[in-house]
Specification:
With about 500 residues, the chain is an alpha/beta fold. It contains 20 helices and 15 strands. It folds into three domains: about 270 residues, TIM Barrel (Alpha-Beta Barrel); about 90 residues, no CATH class; about 100 residues, 3-Layer(aba) Sandwich (Rossmann fold), CATH 3.40.50.720. Helix 13 packs across helix 16 and helix 17 crosses helix 18. The chain starts with a strand and ends in an 11-residue tail after the last strand. Bound molecules: iron/sulfur cluster (2 copies).
């Protein structure tokens, strides 16, 4: 029996375990039989007592809504709660959200979604963009009014300070956040804050994106008697925090599902277990010399360097690595790409020069809760940055192929970010002033402009009529390219980073 818990003040009870569609393997999503197998697995979860299936249009290689359609042929609609998700990058206006929900209803046949997420909010600035008049939140409320969706929830990848603002704004009935051994210091207080406000709390990423099961032995100290595996301990840990309603587990096959079900079947923690899990997780996360993201070092640095973010990126080099990453197979290159990829995700851009700004004063190391050799790690990080830079010849060739097109009059760069400025600076260094006019677009155009120029909203693409849109984001390249293609109506959309690229310009 999977326990059910109230989702904040919504009056809805969710199973303590929810299942998501993001971990299905690409090869299982390519044909009819594979899709049926994945849908049958979801149905098996529902019949076993899971009553929440997490869904978004882009999950499962874009097949998530098709999986939900197939699931609803196998289980009664009322046996499962379903979500639809809208991101302000691809759905910047109220009407876009309504289109997104209507499309989702049509593709899943769900008749109504129980939850509408404003999805992957990255900062307080994005929150304000979402809440602006005519913005996505207005669309979400309209979808609710029309009976297309129930509660409006938010999923946040924002830093703790901004996440607190998302919680405090009072616009949402619940929040979905990433919480695991490694992010507990950062996210734990956000969960407490949301629960205190009566919001429902759902957890994503309880296995650290696979890092925890891939490093079974490293994190084994988080296991308590009765835990069959470190992964099971991680699921129970996430569910043990007071205020958490539902922990989402990605499942790829019946083994994953059985493991997740076994973690929750007939299990509910008491106060003693909650505190034992917190202590075990704290020591397990600290044992391998990992930065736990506690942030104590931040205030100690006289230069205001982003030490926790750098150290959390460095963590990647201490953990088990995949056999292949961005098409790389050499172990050293994979380790470097994993570290730099994480660094780029968190900052969008790596430090421009390969020279470390750290003066090795050691103040950070003296206050580090894990006693980490921070200055030495920063030095290694910058060694990786220097070694990971694409060669001059490669950079020149890539920019030549991407941007030097005869007859271009105007090129649009999206987003209006430091990455766009860096690409243009590199272009000037190699080829001199561009012969085309540069214009900037952004899903969240800053009223202050960028590089002394106005920043356009996606809806202005047709009017501005650039010869091409250049998508310069590493982390959100795919999503932005999709949004630009929708708006661009025949204008070529080019990406600085193609699928499988390692970070190469920074
Ligand atoms: S050692 Fe470097 S990172 Fe640490 S406090 Fe000094 S300057 Fe900042
Ligand atoms: S004090 Fe140590 S463990 Fe905490 S964030 Fe800084 S480097 Fe990481």
């Amino acid at each position: 029996m999977i326990p059910r818990r109230p989702l904040g003040r919504t009056g809805i009870a969710l199973s303590a375990l929810g299942v998501g569609t993001t971990r299905f393997r690409a090869e299982d999503l390519r044909d009819e039989e594979g899709l049926d197998r994945c849908a049958a697995l979801l149905a098996c979860a529902v019949r076993s007592g899971v009553n929440y299936v997490d869904n978004a249009f882009s999950y499962a290689e874009g097949k998530s809504e098709e999986l939900v359609r197939r699931l609803l042929r196998l289980v009664p609609r009322e046996s499962v709660r379903l979500a639809v998700k809208s991101n302000s990058g691809s759905d910047p206006a109220a009407d876009d959200v309504l289109r997104r929900v209507a499309g989702g209803l049509e593709r899943t046949g769900a008749e109504r979604f129980d939850f509408l997420y404003l999805w992957s909010v990255l900062s307080a600035e994005e929150l304000r963009y979402i809440l602006r008049p005519g913005g996505p939140y207005e669309g979400a409320l309209e979808a609710k009014k029309r009976g297309w969706a129930g509660n409006v929830l938010v999923s946040s990848h924002a830093p703790a300070k901004d996440a607190a603002e998302i919680v405090d704004c009072g616009a949402f009935d619940g929040i979905l956040v990433s919480y695991n051994f490694l992010s507990r210091r950062e996210t734990g207080p956000v969960i407490d804050r949301a629960a205190a406000r009566g919001m429902g709390v759902l957890i994503m990423n309880p296995l650290g994106g696979g890092l925890i099961p891939q490093n079974e032995a490293l994190f084994s100290g988080a296991r308590l008697p009765g835990d069959a595996s470190t992964a099971q301990a991680a699921l129970r840990f996430a569910s043990s925090r007071e205020g958490v309603t539902c922990v989402l587990a990605g499942i790829a096959d019946s083994r994953d599902l059985d493991q997740a079900l076994a973690a929750f079947d007939g299990w509910e923690p008491d106060d003693g277990e909650r505190s034992a899990r917190e202590s075990a997780a704290a020591s397990a996360a600290a044992a391998p010399g990992l930065c736990t993201g506690c942030g104590y070092c931040r205030a100690a640095c006289p230069l205001g360097l982003p030490i926790p973010e750098w150290m959390q990126s460095y963590n990647r080099s201490l953990l088990a690595l995949p056999k292949e990453l961005y098409g790389l197979t050499d172990r050293e290159q994979i380790a470097r790409a994993a570290v730099l990829g994480k660094l780029m995700q968190d900052f969008s851009l790596l430090p421009e020069s390969g020279e470390s700004p750290c003066v090795a004063c050691g103040r950070c190391a003296r206050v580090c809760t894990q006693r980490l050799p921070i200055p030495e790690r920063i030095a290694s990080l910058f060694q990786m940055i220097r070694a990971g830079r694409a060669s001059e010849t490669d950079r020149r060739e890539r920019l030549d192929t991407l941007l030097r097109k005869p007859g271009w009059r105007r090129a649009a760069f999206w987003p209006a970010s430091a990455a766009a400025a860096r690409v243009l600076a590199e272009y000037r260094r190699f080829f001199g002033e561009p012969e085309f006019e540069t214009v900037f677009f952004d899903s969240h155009p800053s009223p202050g402009g960028f590089e002394g120029q106005p920043v356009h909203a996606p809806g202005e693409l047709a009017a501005v009529k650039p010869d091409a849109v250049i998508v310069v984001s590493f982390r959100y390249g795919e999503e932005i390219a999709a949004a630009a293609s929708r708006e661009a109506a025949g204008i070529p959309v080019l990406r600085l980073y193609e699928d499988g690229d390692a970070p190469w310009i920074y």
